[in-house]
From TrEMBL:
Region (Disordered): 1-25
GO molecular function, one term: hydrolase activity
Top-level division of the source organism's lineage: Bacteria
Signal peptide start-end: none
Protein's UniProt name: Metal-dependent hydrolase
UniProt-listed InterPro entries: UCP07580
Organism, scientific name: Novosphingobium aerophilum
The UniProt record lists the keyword Hydrolase: yes
Highest classification ranks of the organism: Bacteria, Pseudomonadati, Pseudomonadota, Alphaproteobacteria, Sphingomonadales
């Protein structure tokens, strides 16, 4: 597995061009895999649990449009990127295009199972509408925050088998594949931001990334919770019972939000870099499991 570009992460005030060189060429691994083309997942594909299924379906419903936004925000700030970062951006785009394709197929299967994603689409369209006309660095800071969310959850999904225990194998493999690549490219948007803001004062670039993380956290958690509740209502699970069950799933067992909180908090540290936490070992293990599956 290729090492990340900045194993010794640059500080907030140092441009990525000044980072120490590394042994390999900086490219990511683009795994062009396809899932669910011959079989369709059941309505409650994750261990027969409507709550777990609703949460992951709500995430997947946002990915196609969200990943298109990620690609455009990174592309808009890549001019003049050093060769190693430019190569990673190209492979990041290729990975995200493949993720979009597979989640389009997965979402289509969910629609065929009887779910309605129209309200989720409306939430995504509303949030993307707010990005129109903003400075490219602001949109990149939002992408950077969302990429940190996906990387944190990807780490948790690979590190803790409880998240997909009892899930249908083909779907679990799709999520495992996606998580591998989210970890692998977790610093690309961040390093692009360092490049795009290299002339900014360190305090300004730190303030923007922290502010956008707070905004993104509020919007992400609010909308994904509402979206999952919407999907649960389509299964006849409504009211306080739906909310309590979803909160318990997210914060108690398996408790993805509780478990990622320390990593979320670390984002606000001056000088933070995604590769401060080197979790490449999870990629190697998950790749072996994926190949065996």
């Amino acid at each position: 597995m290729n090492a990340p570009t900045f194993l010794a992460p640059p500080r907030e005030g140092v441009p990525p061009d000044a980072a120490p060189a590394k042994a390999d060429d900086g490219t990511l691994t683009v795994r062009d895999l396809r899932f669910g083309r011959t079989t369709r997942p059941g309505r409650w594909w994750l261990g027969g649990d409507p709550v777990a299924t609703a949460w992951h379906n709500a995430l997947s419903a946002t990915f196609p449009k969200g990943e298109a936004f990620f690609i455009e925000s990174v592309k808009s700030c890549r001019d003049g990127a050093p060769p190693r970062l430019a190569a990673e951006i190209r492979d990041f785009i290729r990975q995200e295009i493949n993720h979009t394709r597979e989640h389009v197929a997965f979402n289509r299967a969910a629609l065929e199972a009887g779910y309605d994603f129209s309200r989720i689409d409306a939430h995504v369209d509303y949030m993307l509408g707010l990005t129109k006309g903003r400075r490219p660095e602001v949109n990149l800071a939002a992408t950077m925050a969302l990429e940190h969310f996906t990387a944190m959850m990807a780490h948790e999904f690979l590190a803790n088998p409880a998240h997909f225990a009892g899930g249908e194998a083909e779907v679990a493999n799709m999520w495992r594949w996606h998580a591998i690549e989210e970890i692998e490219h977790k610093a690309v948007a961040f390093d692009t931001y360092l490049h795009a803001t290299k002339t900014w004062p360190a305090r300004r670039r730190w303030f923007l990334r922290c502010l956008m993380m707070l905004i993104v956290t509020r919007n992400f958690l609010h909308h994904r919770f509402v979206d999952a509740i919407d999907l649960l209502a389509q299964d006849g699970i409504t009211g306080w019972r739906a909310k309590v069950r979803l909160l318990a799933y997210l914060t108690v067992r398996p408790g993805v939000l509780r478990r990622i909180f320390p990593s979320w908090l670390s984002y606000f540290r001056p000088g933070f870099h995604p590769w401060d936490h080197d979790d490449r070992a999870l990629i190697a293990t998950a790749e072996r499991e994926l190949a065996a599956g």
